[in-house]
C-alpha cells in the first residue's frame, strides 16, 4: 500500500502524493490509513511546518474506491476513511492542496479543511453523495454552507452536478487557477513562502483562523457518519453503488 501514497520531506515541507493513477486515485481503506499516518507524523514532527497534498497534473482523486468500500466488513466508524476525515478536522499545521482532473467526493470535501488550494484549469469537482443514496461527509454539511451559503451548498451537495475550477474559484473553494503544467510547482512555491514566515507566527495565525469551528466540526462529522452508514445500508444506495462498481 505504501507505493499508492508517496511522501517526501524537503525544506520543512511534507509533500503527500496520491499515486494510484490507473484508478483515478480512487482511495482504498489502506490508502486512508497511510494518509492518516502521514498527517500524524506531520503533527508530531517539529521539522515539518507545512503539508502539500496532491495527485499529478491530470488527476487528484475520484473519491472512494467503490468495490473496496462495498466489500468492507467493518463499520464505517472503524474504517480508514473516517479516521482520515477526523484527522483532517483536527489537523494543526498549514495544509495546501494541488488539484487537477477529477476531484470527486472526498476529493472535494477535503479542500474545506485546507488552508489554501490551487487548481489546474482541467479540474472537475463533484459532490455526488445524494445521487448515490448517501449524505454529505467530512463536515461538508456544515463547512460548505458557511463558505458558499445554504442554497448554493444545497445545490452542490444534493443535485451533485460537477463544476469547473473557475466556478470553484468564484465559490471561494480554491485560491487560484493555473495551467496544469504549473500546478505542482505553484503549490510548492506557496508552501515555500509559508515556511519562510516565523514558525510561531505561522502556527498561531493558523490556529486563530481555524480553531474556532474545530469542536463543532468534530460533532458534525460524527452525526454525518451515522447518517451515512444508515443510508449505505438501504436497498436504494446498495443498488446504485453496486451498479457503479461493476
Can you give a write-up of this model?
The structure is a single chain. This protein has 246 residues and is α/β, with parallel strands linked by helices. The protein has a single domain (2-180), classed as Alpha-Beta Complex (2-enoyl-CoA Hydratase, Chain A, domain 1), CATH 3.90.226.10. The chain contains eleven helices and nine strands. The protein has helices spanning 29-44, 66-71, 80-90, 106-109, 140-148, 150-159, 165-170, 183-195, 199-210, 214-232, 235-245; strands at 5-10, 13-18, 50-54, 95-99, 102-104, 116-120, 124-126, 163-164, 176-178. The strands form two sheets. The chain has a six-stranded mixed beta sheet with strand order 1-2-3-4-6-9, with helices on both faces. Helix 3 packs antiparallel against helix 10 and helix 5 packs across helix 10. InterPro entries: ClpP/crotonase-like_dom_sf (IPR029045), ECH/Chromodomain_protein (IPR051053), Enoyl-CoA_hydra/iso (IPR001753). Pfam families: ECH_1 (PF00378). Its main location: other.
Report mean pLDDT, rounded to a whole number.
94
Helical residues, percent: 40-55%
Name of the CATH first level? Alpha Beta
List low-confidence stretches. Answer: none
Shape: globular
Number of strands: 9
Give the full name of the CATH homologous superfamily. 2-enoyl-CoA Hydratase, Chain A, domain 1
Evaluate the radius of gyration: 17 Å
Measure the end-to-end span: 23 Å
Main location: other
Protein name: Enoyl-CoA hydratase
Organism: Thalassotalea eurytherma
InterPro entries: ClpP/crotonase-like_dom_sf (IPR029045), ECH/Chromodomain_protein (IPR051053), Enoyl-CoA_hydra/iso (IPR001753)
Amino acid at each position: 500500500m505504501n507505493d499508492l501514497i508517496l511522501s517526501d520531506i524537503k525544506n520543512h515541507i511534507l509533500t503527500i502524493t496520491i499515486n494510484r493513477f490507473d484508478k483515478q486515485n480512487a482511495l482504498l481503506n489502506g490508502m486512508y490509513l497511510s494518509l492518516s499516518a502521514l498527517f500524524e507524523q506531520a503533527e508530531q514532527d517539529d521539522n515539518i511546518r507545512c503539508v502539500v497534498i496532491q495527485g499529478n497534473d491530470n488527476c487528484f482523486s475520484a473519491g472512494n474506491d467503490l468495490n473496496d468500500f462495498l466489500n468492507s466488513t467493518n463499520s464505517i466508524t472503524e474504517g480508514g476513511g473516517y479516521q482520515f476525515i477526523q484527522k483532517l478536522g483536527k489537523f494543526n499545521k498549514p495544509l495546501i492542496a494541488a488539484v487537477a482532473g477529477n476531484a470527486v467526493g472526498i476529493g472535494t470535501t477535503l479542500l474545506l479543511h485546507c488552508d489554501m488550494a490551487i487548481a489546474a484549469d482541467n479540474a472537475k469537482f463533484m459532490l455526488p453523495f445524494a445521487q448515490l443514496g448517501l449524505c454529505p461527509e467530512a463536515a461538508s454539511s456544515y463547512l460548505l454552507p458557511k463558505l458558499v451559503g445554504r442554497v448554493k451548498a444545497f445545490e452542490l451537495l444534493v443535485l451533485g452536478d460537477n463544476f469547473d475550477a473557475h466556478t470553484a474559484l468564484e465559490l471561494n473553494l480554491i485560491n487560484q487557477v493555473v495551467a496544469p503544467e504549473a500546478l505542482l510547482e505553484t503549490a510548492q512555491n506557496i508552501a515555500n513562502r509559508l515556511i519562510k514566515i516565523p514558525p510561531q507566527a505561522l502556527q498561531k495565525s493558523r490556529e486563530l483562523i481555524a480553531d474556532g469551528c474545530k469542536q463543532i466540526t468534530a460533532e458534525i462529522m460524527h452525526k454525518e457518519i451515522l447518517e451515512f452508514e444508515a443510508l449505505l445500508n438501504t436497498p436504494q444506495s446498495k443498488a446504485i453503488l453496486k451498479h457503479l462498481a461493476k
